[in-house]
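Lab meeting, action items carried over

1. Structure of the two-component assembly. Owner: GW. Status: complete.
Input record:
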Amino acid sequence: MTDFDITSREIDGMAPHGTKVGLLRVLGPAHVWALGVGIVLVGEYMGWNFAVGKGGAYAALIACWFAGLLYSCVAMIDSEVTSTVAAAGGQYTQAKHIVGPLMAFNVGLYLVFAYTMLEAANAITVGFLIDTVAVMSGHEGLDQRPFIVLAIMFLAWLNYRGVLATLTFSLVITAIAFSAIIILFLATSPVFGSNVLQHKALMTDLPYGWLGILAAMHFGLWYYLGIEGTTQAAEEVRSPARSLPFGTLAGIMTLLIAATLTWYVCVGLMPWEYLGQSGVPLFDAARMSGSTGLMVLLGIGTLFATLASANGCINDASRAWFAMGRDQYLPSWFGAVHPTYRTPYRSIIFLVPIALIFALGAPLDQVITFSILSGLLEYTFMPINVIMFRKKWPLDAIKRGYEHPFHPIPAIVLLCLCSVAYFAVFLGYGTQLVAMIAFYIIVSLWFHFWRYRFVRRAAQFTMPWPRPNGY
Amino acid sequence: MARYVPPTQSKFGQVIDVIVLLAMTIGALYIPLWFGLAGSAHVANVAENPTWESLGQNEVMVEKWTQLGYADPAAAAELITGRFDYSFSIGSLLVMIVVIVGYYAIMLRFSEKEYRDVIAEKFNGE
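Predicted assembly:
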């Protein structure tokens, strides 16, 4: 049991949950920042550039800013709700308390799939990067699979051994990866005397017209996808009411800077047709700068960014899976906490083979699309969630760690941008979109008509809040 | 309201549930892949004996392609001419809208029903 009630109007603290052995509360705001940015920063190192392929260089920049607006709304909304519903499972736990069990089950799966697929994409990139370096050093035909397996197994082991060590590791390598982007920008920027950037000669008009700008929003999400994962640390931070909003909002600001700098450097160094299909664009940009030092730095940055992201993904997916197991939404076996390391160890181990199946057997853009779609479904839930939250518990009903401004404008903007993103995915990946939603409909029916019978009704409502308005 | 007492699930039942969930998860990605339905509609239009000029590349672009390892325009032609096919029918767009809106409508409706039970049991029991 925890010591304090975050909804108290007198004191800050953490939400209670009746587990005998709980997760360990050891994280600070820097770890929250590292968790959010660590997961996402890999999006600057690979994946965002597919937006260039879908609409051209200018379209990718516009997508970068609109996706930035979308995620700013996500971060604000998340900061308010998470600073109040401070428990493992993040948006899953929010949905359980605010919208209802079936929505919560779906949101839990969105989280697990978004992060597990992202973890798989990271592992694929690790293998691709090592292969690229091997080819550059004259070793053709390297088998990438052992590196993919090793990366996933190592990070799962790190997560198994404890959250403080794993997120401190993330903090260090994320900071190095972020610094590498800044250094690349400074080293190539004309402000500092360099003339390697050739925007004028390389920039072309919109190859797909305005439709391409809409289409680019699909992979534009990749610039920031995963920042909402900070909420998964809610049960393990020392002061969620302060640390979560601070870490999340500082994280989105960091990413807005990193995303714009990344776009600027890359489109000034490569033809858009190549950039749009590159596996490791920032590393390629460093290669094109002509500096061996930059190439090595960005190679290390790419490796660190992918490892930090996969590390955070294992952390977040396992917390969501663990939270669902603890509530019996999934077999309760998953709700166990390791007696020594205080981690959700069974959930961590269980998700390893799933990540491996996708990392070893699916194409990168499909895995990314799977992750993006799960994220997109989650972002569509968020405006519904916050509108219901404010309606059921108005501002004066319970204390929030953070109150986001201009409600409901961020919710409406988020919903509109999600609609644009759905259309963007539909352009080029329509069948994948329909297949994904068909899966969620089938699994929802399975939950409602079968699995929900094992869930204790009142026991899943763990927040000490008053009865919601209208019920 | 009477407190709902859920049945205890056997270990075998838990294993079956996990297998069902896993099968659905893996199927969600691999079924579209197996049937060739997943992925982008991406087509390249490579002409015979392409030149950098015919591919619309200026001097700087050619220099960059060469730096990237594409010294020959034929090697880069597929990348340069590759385009997504964004043509779609209004019918398929409507199907997508109905699927997404319908999905959320189902979610919210069933969730609301379950949520009322949770609140009734939680607050009537206190």
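2. GW to write a short summary for the group page. Key points so far: The mean pLDDT of chain B is 88. Chain B touches chain A through 75 residues (CB under 8 Å).
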